[in-house]
Amino acid sequence: MAGLDLSGLVPIVEDLLLQDVVRIALPASGEPELDPATGLYTHPVGDIVYEGKGAVQSAYTADVTASTPNTNLPWVAETRSRYRMFTPLSVPIAEKDTIVTVVQVHAGGDVTLLGRQWRVQDPSIGGTLGVVRITMLDQIAGQVA
After folding, report:
1. What is residue 13's three-state secondary structure?
2. pTM
3. Chain centroid to CA 41: how far?
């Protein structure tokens, strides 16, 4: 029995969804540096694994605030800003803790994404019927323009 072939959909989905440019880079050593032009701290860029068409979207889940196990202690101020990155299937799988940056948005796109950085949470979501690679991200705090 022949399986479902989605290869004909790949170029259509890529053209509709992957309209921005994303950069996937290995984490660089060194501390974040203050960008005097924006007033934001930026992480140094490591070796670039991929730079090309892609998209980053919110994962539409509520932020999670972790609490410490002892009820007498305050809440831990650690939240997760969950996002998803979409890239072509030909792009190498981004490893955990790889850094993702939006470097260009399409006309009419959300320019507030430019320069933001996210950390890859897990290697890409896999599936036997995928047409794009989906990678879960967590926004690096202090990167909102």
Report:
1. helix
2. 0.76
3. 18
d(CA 51, CA 105): 13
Mean pLDDT, residues 93-121 taken together: 92
87 in Cβ contact with 133 (< 8 Å)? yes
Q: Which residue in the block uniquely carries the two structure tokens 């030909």?
A: 90
* Residue 113 DSSP code: G
At 16, is the secondary structure helix, strand, or coil?
helix
C-alpha to C-alpha distances, 142 to 26, 78, 81, nearest whole angstrom: 19, 12, 12
Identity of the residue numbered 106:
H
Q: Give dist(CA 67, CA 83) in Å, integer.
A: 22
Backbone angles phi, psi at 96, to 5 degrees: -55, 140
Cβ atoms 86, 107 nearer than 8 A: no
